Amino acid sequence: MAGLLAAATSAADKRAAFRAGLASNRLQRLPGAFNPLVARLIQEIGFEGVYVSGAVVSAELALPDIGLTTSTEVAERGRQVARVTDLPVLIDADTGFGEPMSAARTVSILEDAGIAGCHLEDQVNPKRCGHLDGKAVVPTGEMVRRLRAAVSARRDPNFVICARTDAAGIEGIDAAIDRAKAYVAAGADLVFTEALHTVADFERFRSAVSIPLLANMTEFGKSELISASTLEKIGYNAVIYPVSTLRLAMSAAEAGLREIFEQGTQAGLLDRMQHRSRLYELLQYERYSEFDSQISDCTPGRNQ
After folding, report:
1. Which range is the signal sequence, renumbered to this chain (predicted)?
2. Which position among 48, 111, 121, 201 bears the catalytic label?
3. Which one of 60, 97, 274, 301 has the fewest beta carbons within 10 angstroms of its own beta carbon?
């Protein structure tokens, strides 16, 4: 049953793998998974990790990304994703869902959910999507308290606490670098600077900050879409593609639904659909059938 109903790799081993990956000088690529089945596909294709985006969790609930989701909703989606993959899962924990003590509790909840790490940001509540205008950040000292609380709540030392700063677009890159250094001193293991614009911005940040860095390659935002090979050459340690799979899926779903509405049939869409056999392959349908047969075929002894 290993790897069938749940991942074969323990949460502790996945956290250790994430730590090792960040220290490997190889870029860790984490596409966003909007459901557990997508996470399984990410693993099959060969990526190093899986990301769970707060914006995507909000969007799935038909809510904007302005801090309306709860820690319970986000953690449960993280638990569902982590359950089915042997890859480490990094999750978006927004601002920690409240005051520093809430951030501490969030870390405990995410550890219990089998997550490998989370990022906490320095925006004020209610937060906004990192690539929109009109954001505001808390004072550096407040974010430092948030991070210290999160670090103090960690039970597994390999659970990665990532500090995200949204200050570059508000206070400038120099201020964002100063914040990042304060966050490192507060115990952050990884730094995520949101909404940098160019390769030069990423290079500047890399030269200024000593610990592993994460890049966000989201579409239709403020950042230039930089290739994984370039990010690795710059010296970045991880990259997320947070909303890519949801955008791909929603675009395809909308086009298909419009055609069904207009044509009255899905007959012209079959070559654009995942075949039943491929879905069953991802679901490991045959392994479930084999297991069920083994259980059913057990013959009880004479005295049973």
Report:
1. none
2. 121
3. 301
Nearest to 186 by CA among 69, 57, 76, 100: 100
**In angstroms, rounded to a whole number, what is the distance separating the alpha carbons of residues 114 and 2?**
16
Name, in order, each residue with C-beta under 8 angstroms of 160's C-beta and a sequence gap of 6 or more.
15, 18, 19, 22, 90, 116, 117, 118, 189, 190
165 DSSP β-pair partners: 193
- How far is Cα 191 from Cα 178, in angstroms, rounded to an integer? 12
Buried-state track 262-279, b at ≥16 Cβ within 10 A, e below 16? eeeeeeeeeeeeeeeeee
118 classed as catalytic: no
Q: Are 15 and 159 in contact (CB under 8 A)?
A: yes
Nearest-10 Cα torsion for 230, 234, 238, 241: -40
pLDDT of residue 128: 61
Residue 65 known to be catalytic: yes
* Residue in this structure with the two tokens 């959910």, named with its chain if needed: 113
Angle, vertex CA 17, rays to CA 216 and CA 95, nearest 5? 40
pLDDT at 294: 73
Residue 194 falls in the annotated catalytic set: yes
Question: Active-site residue among 29, 77, 92, 179?
Answer: 92
Distant-in-sequence, close-in-space partners of 258: CB < 8 Å, separation ≥ 6? none
User: What's the pLDDT at 304?
Assistant: 42
**166 has catalytic annotation:** no
Angstrom distance (rounded) from CA 52 to CA 113:
13
- pTM given for the model: 0.93
Instruction: Verify whether residue 162 is a known catalytic residue.
Output: no
Residues 6+ apart with CB under 8 A from 17: 9, 87, 88, 116
